[in-house]
From TrEMBL:
Organism: Penaeus vannamei (Whiteleg shrimp)
Entry EC no(s): 2.3.1.225
Record domain Palmitoyltransferase DHHC: where: 116-241
InterPro entries: Palmitoyltrfase_DHHC (IPR001594), PFA4/ZDH16/20/ERF2-like (IPR039859)
Ranges annotated as spanning the membrane: 29-54, 60-78, 158-182, 202-223
Enzyme class: transferase
Signal peptide: none
Subcellular location: Membrane
GO molecular function: protein-cysteine S-palmitoyltransferase activity
Protein's name in the database: Palmitoyltransferase
Primary subcellular site in the record, as a coarse category: membrane
Keywords: Acyltransferase, Membrane, Transferase, Transmembrane, Transmembrane helix
């Protein structure tokens, strides 16, 4: 184990930290609004499914199965979202580009290091500066306002799981919404909901629209992320079409670098992905 050192040899880097430095928090108004909207939209879908769709069903097996499945997807999706939002994505400590730290790197003759002029940090290979987080992020993929955080070395697993479970939740909500709408039309809107027919129409149509929109959006994001991991590239590297100056991992090892060895924990937002080997501890924030 390596001792985590801040930019001045042991001090905690307080930037983007809350809860006494125990939690990573990005103070971006747009990101906070998007993150809150994500939880509200899932809550709305939960409300419609419970009260409009399953609350009036006369089929106990159908109701129980879909109630359990929908809530499992919802819990996993929101847990993944929270982990992606409150996990340090791989921030390099601000101001660690000191003479002492550079000397400790033991550079060989002719070896070049890069310094970020915006946050005065030693810039590791494949790191990029995020203007929202105001930090250099190791293996940065992109900044996502929906999780109010960068997607980087430490939280990419959680972001992938978030897109995966939101896509499944949306597809399930889309199926339930369309099926209930058909039932209501066939029964001429009698006893198909505890709400009035106009209110039921509005609630179901918004659920269907929301589910379709987010199913497409998150499915595209999920496959984009998996493709980037598979090719050992980040979104920024693909966008800039950067020539790989690093030694690319095999496809399987690239996936393992994000998710760990294959097991059921791949699909769990409650397990932490494998941490990188800290060759220089002062490159990692406390």
């Amino acid at each position: 184990m390596y001792e985590s050192l801040g930019p001045r040899g042991g001090e905690m880097d307080p930037h983007n930290k809350c809860m006494g430095g125990r939690m990573w928090c990005v103070s971006d108004i747009c990101g906070i609004i998007c993150a809150v909207m994500t939880w509200l939209l899932v809550t709305y879908a939960e409300f419609v499914v419970l009260t409009v769709i399953l609350g009036t069903s006369n089929h106990p097996i159908y109701t129980t199965f879909n109630l359990l499945l929908f809530n499992v997807f919802a819990v996993l999706a929101l847990s993944s979202h929270a982990r992606a939002m409150f996990t340090d994505p791989g921030a390099v400590p601000k101001g660690n580009a000191t003479r002492e730290n550079i000397q400790r790197m033991g550079l060989r003759e002719g070896q070049v290091i890069f310094k970020c002029p915006k946050c005065c940090s030693i810039k590791p290979e494949r790191a990029h500066h995020c203007s929202v987080c105001q930090r250099c992020i190791r293996k940065m993929d992109h900044h996502c306002p929906w999780v109010n955080n960068c997607v980087g070395e430490n939280n990419q697993k959680f972001f992938v799981l978030f897109t995966f479970y939101i896509a499944l939740l949306s597809l399930h909500g889309l199926f339930l919404g369309i099926y209930q709408f058909i039932i209501c039309v066939r029964s001429e809107w009698r006893e198909c909901s505890s709400f009035s027919p106009p209110a039921t129409v509005v609630l179901l149509l918004f659920l269907i629209f929301e589910s379709l929109l987010f199913a497409i959006f998150t499915a595209v994001m999920f496959f984009t992320q998996v493709n980037a991991i598979w090719n050992d590239e980040t979104g920024i590297e693909q966008l800039k079409k950067e020539q790989a100056s690093w030694e690319k991992k095999s496809r399987w090892r690239s996936i393992q670098a994000v998710f760990g060895r294959f097991s059921l924990t791949w699909f769990s937002p409650f397990t932490t992905p494998p941490l990188p080997t800290k060759t220089h501890s002062y490159m990692y924030a406390v």
